[in-house]
Design brief:
alpha+beta, Ribosomal Protein S5, domain 2, about 140 residues, globular, single chain, 4 helices, four-stranded mixed β-sheet
């Protein structure tokens, strides 16, 4: 049995091609203080490699947060909130045989607290889950 709350190597969005595709062709939603870019497509991965179905990355502006310490702290909070809450979306993608790339961009001006980030990520995940469901219904 796989660990339930992990953010493994296969779940991180690191490919420059995938990120460029996400910015050029992906859709965007806004959940304050985040801008969320996402792209849903048919899964080409084998069933055994289900961890690559949902890939995630986060970014924070260096213009707003000059110190790397603050940027890294915000990204750590975002990753932790994502890690704890992503399972429902991941299960939906597995059943629908879809693949999703998600990119969270922090647009706030102040250093957030973990409860604030967790709540905003939860709202974003609910919207993504709804959009994944609508994508499945329209393609069926």
């Amino acid at each position: 049995m796989a660990k339930q709350f992990t953010l493994g190597k296969n779940e991180k969005l690191k490919s420059r091609k995938q990120i460029d595709l996400l910015f050029s062709e992906g859709k965007k939603i806004v959940v304050s203080p985040f801008r969320i870019l996402f792209c849903i497509r048919e899964s080409s991965l084998a069933a055994s490699n289900a961890s690559g179905l949902l890939q995630f990355s986060a970014a924070v502006s260096s213009k707003i947060f000059k110190k790397a310490v603050n940027r890294n702290r915000i990204k750590r909070l975002i990753r932790e909130a994502w890690r704890l809450q992503k399972n429902e979306l991941k299960e939906k993608l597995e059943t629908d045989k879809k693949q999703m790339n998600v990119f969270f961009i922090y647009t706030g001006k102040t250093l957030p607290t973990f409860p604030d980030v967790k709540d905003a990520v939860a709202i974003g995940l609910k919207k993504l889950l709804k959009l994944a469901h609508e994508n499945t219904v329209t393609n069926s």
